[in-house]
Protein backbone atom coordinates (compact mmCIF):
# COMPACT_ATOMS: atom_id res chain seq x y z
CA UNK A 1 0.00 0.00 0.00
CA UNK A 2 1.36 3.41 -1.00
CA UNK A 3 2.01 6.10 1.57
CA UNK A 4 -0.24 9.08 0.84
CA UNK A 5 1.45 12.15 -0.58
CA UNK A 6 0.27 14.35 2.27
CA UNK A 7 1.94 12.01 4.74
CA UNK A 8 5.16 11.86 2.72
CA UNK A 9 5.46 15.63 2.72
CA UNK A 10 4.53 15.88 6.40
CA UNK A 11 7.04 13.27 7.54
CA UNK A 12 9.78 14.52 5.26
CA UNK A 13 9.46 18.12 6.40
CA UNK A 14 9.52 17.01 10.03
CA UNK A 15 12.83 15.22 9.48
CA UNK A 16 14.25 18.24 7.66
CA UNK A 17 13.28 20.61 10.43
CA UNK A 18 15.44 18.63 12.85
CA UNK A 19 18.58 18.29 10.74
CA UNK A 20 21.48 20.44 9.59
CA UNK A 21 20.63 19.87 5.92
CA UNK A 22 17.33 21.78 6.30
CA UNK A 23 19.08 24.80 4.80
CA UNK A 24 19.21 23.00 1.44
CA UNK A 25 15.48 23.52 0.89
CA UNK A 26 15.69 27.25 1.60
CA UNK A 27 15.83 29.80 -1.22
CA UNK A 28 18.09 32.59 -2.40
CA UNK A 29 18.01 35.81 -0.35
CA UNK A 30 14.60 36.38 1.32
CA UNK A 31 12.80 33.47 -0.34
CA UNK A 32 10.47 35.05 -2.91
CA UNK A 33 10.62 32.27 -5.50
CA UNK A 34 8.94 29.28 -3.78
CA UNK A 35 5.84 31.28 -2.85
CA UNK A 36 5.71 32.80 -6.31
CA UNK A 37 6.04 29.36 -7.90
CA UNK A 38 2.97 28.21 -5.97
CA UNK A 39 1.01 31.32 -6.88
CA UNK A 40 1.68 30.85 -10.61
CA UNK A 41 0.72 27.16 -10.54
CA UNK A 42 -2.48 28.01 -8.66
CA UNK A 43 -3.65 30.44 -11.36
CA UNK A 44 -4.93 27.56 -13.51
CA UNK A 45 -7.90 25.25 -13.14
CA UNK A 46 -8.98 22.39 -15.41
CA UNK A 47 -11.49 22.22 -18.23
CA UNK A 48 -13.01 18.76 -17.85
CA UNK A 49 -14.56 16.27 -20.24
CA UNK A 50 -16.51 13.63 -18.34
CA UNK A 51 -18.59 12.20 -21.19
CA UNK A 52 -17.16 9.96 -23.94
CA UNK A 53 -13.66 10.39 -22.59
CA UNK A 54 -10.74 8.01 -22.99
CA UNK A 55 -8.51 6.42 -20.35
CA UNK A 56 -5.11 8.11 -20.09
CA UNK A 57 -1.73 6.41 -20.46
CA UNK A 58 1.06 8.02 -18.44
CA UNK A 59 3.92 6.14 -20.13
CA UNK A 60 6.17 7.99 -22.54
CA UNK A 61 9.31 7.50 -24.62
CA UNK A 62 11.78 10.38 -24.66
CA UNK A 63 14.91 10.23 -26.82
CA UNK A 64 14.65 6.46 -26.90
CA UNK A 65 14.14 6.09 -23.12
CA UNK A 66 10.79 4.62 -22.10
CA UNK A 67 9.33 5.66 -18.74
CA UNK A 68 6.13 4.68 -16.93
CA UNK A 69 5.53 8.31 -16.00
CA UNK A 70 6.53 11.82 -17.12
CA UNK A 71 7.39 12.55 -13.48
CA UNK A 72 11.18 12.47 -12.99
CA UNK A 73 13.81 13.65 -10.55
CA UNK A 74 15.39 17.07 -11.00
CA UNK A 75 19.18 17.43 -10.81
CA UNK A 76 20.25 16.97 -7.17
CA UNK A 77 23.13 15.34 -5.35
CA UNK A 78 23.63 17.39 -2.21
CA UNK A 79 22.23 16.83 0.47
CA UNK A 80 21.05 13.29 -0.39
CA UNK A 81 24.02 11.44 1.20
CA UNK A 82 23.35 13.29 4.48
CA UNK A 83 19.67 12.38 4.57
CA UNK A 84 20.18 8.62 4.60
CA UNK A 85 23.08 6.24 4.43
CA UNK A 86 23.49 5.18 0.79
CA UNK A 87 20.86 7.77 -0.01
CA UNK A 88 21.70 8.09 -3.70
CA UNK A 89 21.29 4.35 -4.21
CA UNK A 90 18.00 4.44 -2.28
CA UNK A 91 16.73 7.18 -4.58
CA UNK A 92 17.84 5.18 -7.62
CA UNK A 93 16.02 2.08 -6.39
CA UNK A 94 12.84 4.00 -5.61
CA UNK A 95 12.79 5.71 -8.98
CA UNK A 96 13.44 2.44 -10.77
CA UNK A 97 10.44 0.87 -9.03
CA UNK A 98 8.30 3.84 -10.08
CA UNK A 99 9.45 3.63 -13.71
CA UNK A 100 11.00 7.09 -13.54
CA UNK A 101 14.38 8.73 -14.26
CA UNK A 102 17.08 9.88 -11.83
CA UNK A 103 19.03 13.10 -12.33
CA UNK A 104 22.13 13.90 -10.30
CA UNK A 105 23.64 17.32 -9.73
CA UNK A 106 26.70 18.60 -7.92
CA UNK A 107 28.90 17.40 -6.49
CA UNK A 108 29.32 14.62 -9.03
CA UNK A 109 28.53 11.37 -7.17
CA UNK A 110 31.61 9.26 -6.61
CA UNK A 111 29.46 6.13 -7.01
CA UNK A 112 27.80 7.21 -10.26
CA UNK A 113 28.65 3.93 -11.97
CA UNK A 114 27.06 2.02 -9.09
CA UNK A 115 23.96 4.18 -9.45
CA UNK A 116 23.62 3.53 -13.18
CA UNK A 117 24.09 -0.19 -12.50
CA UNK A 118 20.80 -0.18 -10.57
CA UNK A 119 19.07 -0.11 -13.95
CA UNK A 120 17.21 3.18 -13.62
CA UNK A 121 17.78 5.70 -16.44
CA UNK A 122 20.22 8.30 -15.09
CA UNK A 123 21.05 11.82 -16.22
CA UNK A 124 23.93 13.75 -14.65
CA UNK A 125 24.75 17.45 -14.61
CA UNK A 126 28.01 19.34 -14.79
CA UNK A 127 28.57 22.87 -13.57
CA UNK A 128 30.39 25.53 -15.64
CA UNK A 129 33.47 25.66 -13.45
CA UNK A 130 36.00 28.41 -14.13
CA UNK A 131 38.47 25.59 -14.48
CA UNK A 132 37.10 24.30 -17.77
CA UNK A 133 39.46 21.33 -17.61
CA UNK A 134 37.63 20.24 -14.47
CA UNK A 135 34.29 20.57 -16.26
CA UNK A 136 35.43 18.47 -19.21
CA UNK A 137 36.94 15.92 -16.83
CA UNK A 138 33.54 15.62 -15.16
CA UNK A 139 31.96 15.09 -18.57
CA UNK A 140 34.38 12.23 -19.17
CA UNK A 141 33.60 10.66 -15.80
CA UNK A 142 29.87 10.97 -16.32
CA UNK A 143 29.97 9.28 -19.70
CA UNK A 144 32.29 6.56 -18.41
CA UNK A 145 29.54 5.74 -15.91
CA UNK A 146 27.22 5.06 -18.87
CA UNK A 147 24.54 7.61 -18.05
CA UNK A 148 21.49 7.98 -20.25
CA UNK A 149 21.71 11.77 -20.65
CA UNK A 150 24.13 14.56 -19.76
CA UNK A 151 23.09 17.98 -18.50
CA UNK A 152 25.01 21.25 -18.30
CA UNK A 153 23.89 23.91 -15.85
CA UNK A 154 23.88 26.94 -18.10
CA UNK A 155 22.31 29.07 -15.37
CA UNK A 156 25.07 28.45 -12.78
CA UNK A 157 27.68 30.71 -14.34
CA UNK A 158 28.01 32.60 -11.06
CA UNK A 159 27.46 29.57 -8.85
CA UNK A 160 24.50 29.20 -6.50
CA UNK A 161 23.22 30.83 -3.31
CA UNK A 162 21.01 29.79 -0.42
CA UNK A 163 19.81 32.70 1.66
CA UNK A 164 22.65 35.22 1.62
CA UNK A 165 25.34 32.55 1.44
CA UNK A 166 27.13 31.60 -1.77
CA UNK A 167 27.15 27.81 -2.04
CA UNK A 168 28.79 26.54 -5.23
CA UNK A 169 31.56 28.92 -6.25
CA UNK A 170 34.35 28.98 -8.82
CA UNK A 171 31.98 29.03 -11.81
CA UNK A 172 31.97 31.25 -14.89
CA UNK A 173 29.30 31.81 -17.57
CA UNK A 174 29.51 29.64 -20.68
CA UNK A 175 29.82 31.04 -24.19
CA UNK A 176 28.02 29.65 -27.21
CA UNK A 177 31.34 28.37 -28.55
CA UNK A 178 31.96 26.53 -25.28
CA UNK A 179 28.51 24.95 -25.44
CA UNK A 180 29.39 23.73 -28.92
CA UNK A 181 32.60 22.20 -27.55
CA UNK A 182 30.59 20.47 -24.84
CA UNK A 183 28.27 19.12 -27.50
CA UNK A 184 31.23 17.67 -29.40
CA UNK A 185 32.50 15.95 -26.26
CA UNK A 186 29.17 14.33 -25.34
CA UNK A 187 28.07 11.24 -27.26
CA UNK A 188 24.65 10.81 -25.61
CA UNK A 189 21.68 13.25 -25.50
CA UNK A 190 22.67 16.65 -24.08
CA UNK A 191 20.38 18.91 -22.03
CA UNK A 192 20.90 22.55 -21.09
CA UNK A 193 19.49 23.25 -17.67
CA UNK A 194 18.16 26.54 -16.32
CA UNK A 195 16.82 28.05 -19.54
CA UNK A 196 14.31 30.83 -18.86
CA UNK A 197 14.28 32.89 -22.05
CA UNK A 198 13.78 32.56 -25.78
CA UNK A 199 17.28 33.89 -26.45
CA UNK A 200 19.02 31.26 -24.34
CA UNK A 201 16.76 28.54 -25.76
CA UNK A 202 17.75 29.47 -29.31
CA UNK A 203 21.46 29.50 -28.42
CA UNK A 204 21.21 26.08 -26.78
CA UNK A 205 19.60 24.70 -29.92
CA UNK A 206 22.29 26.35 -32.05
CA UNK A 207 24.88 24.60 -29.90
CA UNK A 208 23.21 21.26 -30.65
CA UNK A 209 21.37 20.51 -27.40
CA UNK A 210 18.81 17.71 -27.58
CA UNK A 211 16.74 19.12 -24.74
CA UNK A 212 16.19 22.05 -22.41
CA UNK A 213 15.31 22.09 -18.73
CA UNK A 214 13.10 25.11 -18.13
CA UNK A 215 13.90 25.79 -14.50
CA UNK A 216 14.61 28.46 -11.90
CA UNK A 217 17.11 26.04 -10.31
CA UNK A 218 15.24 25.42 -7.10
CA UNK A 219 15.43 29.13 -6.19
CA UNK A 220 19.20 28.86 -5.73
CA UNK A 221 20.55 31.11 -8.50
CA UNK A 222 18.96 34.54 -8.76
CA UNK A 223 16.32 36.43 -6.81
CA UNK A 224 13.01 37.23 -8.58
CA UNK A 225 13.31 34.64 -11.30
CA UNK A 226 10.03 33.79 -13.03
CA UNK A 227 8.25 30.50 -12.70
CA UNK A 228 8.93 28.38 -15.81
CA UNK A 229 5.26 28.48 -16.85
CA UNK A 230 5.64 32.23 -17.35
CA UNK A 231 8.24 31.74 -20.08
CA UNK A 232 7.08 28.46 -21.61
CA UNK A 233 5.10 30.10 -24.41
CA UNK A 234 8.05 32.10 -25.76
CA UNK A 235 10.33 29.06 -25.45
CA UNK A 236 7.96 26.60 -27.13
CA UNK A 237 7.49 29.04 -30.00
CA UNK A 238 11.25 29.37 -30.41
CA UNK A 239 12.00 25.66 -30.08
CA UNK A 240 9.08 24.05 -31.90
CA UNK A 241 9.84 20.33 -32.23
CA UNK A 242 13.58 20.96 -32.13
CA UNK A 243 14.20 19.85 -28.57
CA UNK A 244 12.72 17.95 -25.64
CA UNK A 245 11.40 20.31 -22.97
CA UNK A 246 11.56 19.43 -19.28
CA UNK A 247 10.12 21.74 -16.65
CA UNK A 248 10.63 22.01 -12.89
CA UNK A 249 9.95 24.54 -10.18
CA UNK A 250 7.54 23.96 -7.28
CA UNK A 251 5.71 20.97 -8.76
CA UNK A 252 4.21 18.91 -5.93
CA UNK A 253 1.07 17.03 -7.10
CA UNK A 254 -0.36 15.37 -10.18
CA UNK A 255 -2.35 18.51 -10.93
CA UNK A 256 0.89 20.52 -11.10
CA UNK A 257 2.40 17.97 -13.47
CA UNK A 258 -0.67 18.15 -15.72
CA UNK A 259 -0.23 21.93 -15.95
CA UNK A 260 3.42 21.56 -16.92
CA UNK A 261 2.49 19.10 -19.68
CA UNK A 262 -0.32 21.39 -20.85
CA UNK A 263 2.23 24.18 -21.34
CA UNK A 264 4.31 21.99 -23.64
CA UNK A 265 6.74 20.09 -21.42
CA UNK A 266 7.38 16.41 -22.11
CA UNK A 267 8.67 15.68 -18.60
CA UNK A 268 8.24 17.35 -15.20
CA UNK A 269 11.00 17.32 -12.57
CA UNK A 270 10.76 17.08 -8.80
CA UNK A 271 13.46 18.49 -6.54
CA UNK A 272 12.50 19.08 -2.91
CA UNK A 273 9.74 16.41 -3.04
CA UNK A 274 12.41 13.75 -3.71
CA UNK A 275 14.36 14.93 -0.67
CA UNK A 276 11.24 14.88 1.53
CA UNK A 277 10.28 11.43 0.28
CA UNK A 278 13.75 10.04 0.95
CA UNK A 279 13.68 11.53 4.45
CA UNK A 280 10.21 10.16 5.06
CA UNK A 281 10.77 6.52 4.09
CA UNK A 282 13.91 5.90 2.06
CA UNK A 283 13.55 4.22 -1.32
CA UNK A 284 9.94 3.27 -0.52
CA UNK A 285 9.14 6.93 0.09
CA UNK A 286 10.66 7.91 -3.26
CA UNK A 287 8.72 5.15 -5.04
CA UNK A 288 5.47 6.12 -3.34
CA UNK A 289 5.97 9.81 -4.09
CA UNK A 290 6.36 9.30 -7.84
CA UNK A 291 3.69 6.61 -7.95
CA UNK A 292 1.23 8.78 -6.02
CA UNK A 293 1.77 11.81 -8.22
CA UNK A 294 1.41 9.60 -11.30
CA UNK A 295 -1.89 8.19 -10.01
CA UNK A 296 -3.16 11.74 -9.52
CA UNK A 297 -2.03 12.63 -13.04
CA UNK A 298 -3.78 9.57 -14.47
CA UNK A 299 -7.04 10.60 -12.79
CA UNK A 300 -6.79 14.08 -14.33
CA UNK A 301 -6.05 12.58 -17.74
CA UNK A 302 -9.13 10.36 -17.50
CA UNK A 303 -11.35 13.31 -16.59
CA UNK A 304 -9.98 15.73 -19.18
CA UNK A 305 -9.80 13.21 -22.06
CA UNK A 306 -6.02 13.20 -22.36
CA UNK A 307 -5.20 9.82 -23.91
CA UNK A 308 -1.43 10.12 -23.43
CA UNK A 309 1.15 12.59 -22.16
CA UNK A 310 1.58 14.00 -25.66
CA UNK A 311 -2.14 14.88 -25.87
CA UNK A 312 -1.93 17.76 -23.41
CA UNK A 313 -2.54 21.32 -24.55
CA UNK A 314 -3.34 24.68 -23.02
CA UNK A 315 -6.99 24.08 -23.94
CA UNK A 316 -7.50 22.06 -20.77
CA UNK A 317 -6.47 25.00 -18.58
CA UNK A 318 -8.60 27.93 -17.45
CA UNK A 319 -6.62 30.92 -16.22
CA UNK A 320 -7.98 33.14 -13.50
Describe the protein in words:
The chain has 320 residues and is of the alpha/beta class. It has a single domain, classed as Aldolase class I (TIM Barrel), CATH 3.20.20. 40% of the residues lie in helices and 16% in strands. The protein is built from eleven helices and 14 strands. It has helices spanning 5-17, 32-41, 80-83, 87-98, 112-116, 132-144, 176-185, 198-207, 232-239, 254-262, 272-304, and strands at 44-46, 60-62, 65-67, 71-73, 102-104, 122-126, 149-153, 161-162, 165-166, 190-195, 211-214, 244-248, 267-270, 317-319. Strands 4-13-12-11-10-7-6-5 form an eight-stranded parallel sheet. Strands 1-14 form a two-stranded antiparallel ribbon. Helix 8 (198-207) links the parallel strand 10 and strand 11 (211-214). Helix 7 packs across helix 8. The longest helix has 33 residues, at 272-304. The termini are far apart. The model has no long low-confidence stretch (mean pLDDT 94).
Tags for this entry?
11 helices, 14 strands, alpha/beta, TIM Barrel, 8-stranded parallel β-sheet, 320 residues, two-stranded antiparallel ribbon, globular
CATH fold category name:
TIM Barrel
Could you give the order of strands across the largest sheet? Answer: 4-13-12-11-10-7-6-5
For the biggest sheet, the summary is: 8 strands, parallel
* Number of domain units: 1
Look at the structure and give the mean pLDDT: 94
The assigned structural class equals alpha/beta
The Cα radius of gyration reads 18 Å
* CATH arch. level architecture: Alpha-Beta Barrel
Residues in helices, as a percent range? 25-40%
Number of helices: 11
Approximate shape: globular
* Strand content bin: 15-25%
So, the CATH homologous superfamily? Answer: Aldolase class I
CATH class: Alpha Beta
Oligomer: single chain
Run of helices and strands: HHEEEEHHEHEHEEEHEHEHEHEHE
Could you give the distance between the termini? 37 Å
Which regions have little confidence, pLDDT < 50, spanning 5+ residues? Answer: none
Number of strands: 14
